[in-house]
Structures are given as structure tokens and as C-alpha cells.
Amino acid sequence: MEFKSIDEQVIQKYQQDEQLMIRLFVQWCANNEVNPHELYSRAYPDQQENETMKKIVEEAKFEEEIDIDNETMLDVLQLFGNDDLAFILTDEIERLSKKQI
């Protein structure tokens, strides 16, 4: 029984960390005036809409901008195995840097 409890705790911790990753992604998108749903669908065109991200976007309040640098965002995405999204984000970062010139 104790192992089940440990397994449940590990799963719960991963889900909490995943939600934090999604919150950071949504915040990064808001800071850079990018639609998070559009970027996600470019990275994962065959997947349905990410319900957790949808909920976070709906609940998000961006009264205080949290600065998330590009490298940190890429590292966080890759840490969670979102390599396709990190690749798309890299393209978006390039596009945004060209736009600022």
C-alpha cells in the first residue's frame, strides 16, 4: 500500500510541475504577444487541443508580467520532453528578433 502512495505522489508532483511548465509557456506567449494555442498546434498538429493549457489561458491574469527569458523557456520545454514545441518556439524567437530590428 505504501508503494501506491509513493507512486501517486510522484504522479501528482509531475502533474503539478507540468502545470507550472504550461503556465510559464502561456506567460512567455503573453509577454511576446504570441498565441499559445497556435504555437502548440504548429508543434503538435495531430493532437487535440491541450485542455490544461486551455484552462490556464482562460484563468490567466497577466496583471504582473513575469519576465521569462527565451533560453529558460526552451530549457523548461525540453526538460518535459516537449522538443517539438521547443523547436517551434526557436523559430518564433527568430521571427520575433527579426521583427524588432
Model description:
The chain is an all-alpha fold and 101 residues long. The chain has helices at residues 2-31, 36-43, 51-59, 70-79, 83-100. Helix 1 runs antiparallel to helix 4 (70-79), helix 2 (36-43) crosses helix 5 (83-100) and helix 4 runs antiparallel to helix 5. The model has no long low-confidence stretch (mean pLDDT 89).
Mean pLDDT: 89
State the distance separating the first and last CA atoms.
60 Å
Structural class: mainly alpha
Q: How many individual helices?
A: 5
Quick recap of the structure?
The chain has 101 residues and is mainly α. The chain has helices at 2-31, 36-43, 51-59, 70-79, 83-100.
